[in-house]
Design brief:
Layout (H helix, E strand, L loop, with lengths): L5 H31 L4 H12 L3 E3 L5 E4 L7 E5 L2 E2 L13 H27 L3 E7 L5 E9 L2 E6 L6 E3 L4 E6 H13 L2 H7 L4
Antiparallel strand pairs: 1-2, 2-3, 3-4, 5-6, 5-9, 6-7, 7-8
């Protein structure tokens, strides 16, 4: 008997984490729908069950295939605010459980994509040399780092750090790369030696 590889556990843990995030995002989307459409809680909850059980397939053309809650062999098509299920004509404004299921999956995917985008921004701690043009048109020189709230600019003039708009920042190079290159250049005799070919 051999000890199992840890990658299986890691992969399982990652899949479980993703499933829990998806579940949470679907439930949050359903709660928002319940708040907005208080009289349609039953249909929303039935749509949530379909979504949680993987009964929704979003297609590249913007439509969705949604399995019937009562018969897994039946698939309804949700497109452009319509559904071909029997309940569509009875539901308020055609909001049947299949349309809710497709909508909840779309909203959950959008929320998860935004969470991933913010996590990637938070993980990126690279500093860049940059210049910033303030509202008065004055250009300041310093460094910036990307945060979930935007660019955090730290000027060389000792002013307080501030968040600045993307359009107001002109990026230079990455600080770590430039500092590494400067160190290597100095080890070879400095910039003068590199340009002239003569060591100090």
């Amino acid at each position: 008997m051999s000890i199992p590889e840890t990658t299986g556990t890691v992969e399982y843990t990652e899949k479980l984490r993703q499933a829990l995030q998806r579940d949470c995002a679907l439930r949050q989307a359903a709660q928002q729908a319940r708040t907005r459409y208080a009289g349609e809680v039953k249909r929303i909850d039935k749509g949530l069950v379909i979504a949680l059980n993987g009964g929704v397939t979003l297609l590249p053309n913007g439509t969705a295939q949604v399995r019937s809650a009562s018969d897994a062999e039946i698939v309804y098509h949700v497109a452009a605010g319509t559904c071909d299920c029997p309940d569509y004509s009875r539901a308020p404004d055609g909001r049947c459980k299949h349309r809710y299921a497709a909508c909840l999956v779309r909203k959950a995917q959008k929320a998860l994509a935004e969470q991933a985008r913010l996590a990637a921004l938070a993980a990126d701690t690279r500093r860049y040399y940059a210049s910033y043009s303030d509202p008065a048109g004055i250009t300041h020189v310093g460094t910036v780092v990307r945060t979930p709230s935007g660019w955090l600019f730290v000027g060389d003039d000792g002013e307080e750090p501030l968040y600045v708009a993307d359009a107001a920042v002109a990026l230079g190079g990455q600080c770590a790369l430039a500092e590494d290159k400067r160190g290597k250049d100095e080890a070879r005799g400095g910039l003068v030696a590199l340009i002239t070919g003569y060591a100090n």
